[in-house]
Amino acid sequence: MLLLSVLLASGQPAHSDPPNLVVVGTEKLSRITRLDNLLGKRKYNDINVLLASADSKETASEDLLWLRDRSINSPSAFINFTYARILWAALGQQADPRLDQARQTAAAMLIYTTVVFDIDGARCSDHTAPSDRLNNIMSQNYPILEYARKTSIENKQQIIRIVTRLDQKNASERAENFDSEFLCTGGLQHMAHMMEHGNSKERPAREGEVGRQIELSDGDEKYVPPLKDKEDWLKVAADKRTKLQKWLFNLLEKPEN
């Protein structure tokens, strides 16, 4: 797995399609096209469903290449977070030190996701939305953060270099194509909207859940998350970036026992 810092340092744009997909046939190309179409429409749940449908190692590897390429230029941290999650799962519990660069890449993608939530999430009027979603992401992917905190100082510095370079590279695109669907939904205001305008249904309790479980949906009236003034937010974002290096080092410190 090619370390992202190599791609970033090359100065070359990511391939529009992973290189080894050029001659694999229309079925595989169609899958990549479907993923790109869903990404363009920000249909993140549908992307997850399609990625989960991979039924062979070849397809799963091609999906990882798509995630890798799109993670370099995407204005949505959803891709970076998803790349981290799927890459880490693919690595499993293998202790092979040759896989450490891939683990660094997965860690960098997750840490970059936290940066996007901290900087871009500051534009959400409902501050509970980005904080709740990020808490869920980090709790579900804590082993990746734990690796980043326990790895060597050299690896931490490499992770931070990748994260800061990605932020610098994508900051303007993220501002112009602000991903309010991923960052600013799911908070208290969204919940209130669904209770008033949406639909609710009871579902079976999952493992670890107790009592009745009610699922809410937007219904016919789609929720549009309110945003703070763009110019005011850009000033906040610029201030946060002046402190980013220190913020990242603090995040990667080993937590006190």
From the structure provided, what is the oligomeric state, counting identical versus distinct chains?
A: single chain
**What overall geometry do the principal axes of the alpha carbons give?**
globular
Structural class: mainly alpha
**Major sheet details:** 2 strands, antiparallel
**What is the number of domains?**
2
Q: Got a strand count?
A: 2
Q: Averaging pLDDT over every residue, what do you get?
A: 84
Tell me the distance between the termini.
34 Å
Strand content: under 5%
List low-pLDDT spans: 5-25
Cα-atom radius of gyration = 19 Å
Number of helices: 13
Percent of residues in helical segments? 55-70%
The SSE string, one letter per element, is HHHHHHHHHHHEEHH
Strand order within the widest sheet? 1-2
Q: What report would you give on this structure?
A:
With 257 residues, this protein is mainly alpha-helical. It is 64% helix and 4% strand. The protein has a two-stranded antiparallel ribbon with strand order 1-2. It is globular, with a radius of gyration of 19 Å. 30% of the residues are buried. The model is unreliable at 5-25 (pLDDT under 50).
Summarize this entry quickly.
The chain is mostly helical and about 260 residues long. About 65% of the residues lie in helices and about 5% in strands. It starts with a helix and ends in a 6-residue tail after the last helix.
What are the main properties of this structure?
single chain; 257 residues; mainly alpha; 2 domains; two-stranded antiparallel sheet; 64% helix; 4% strand
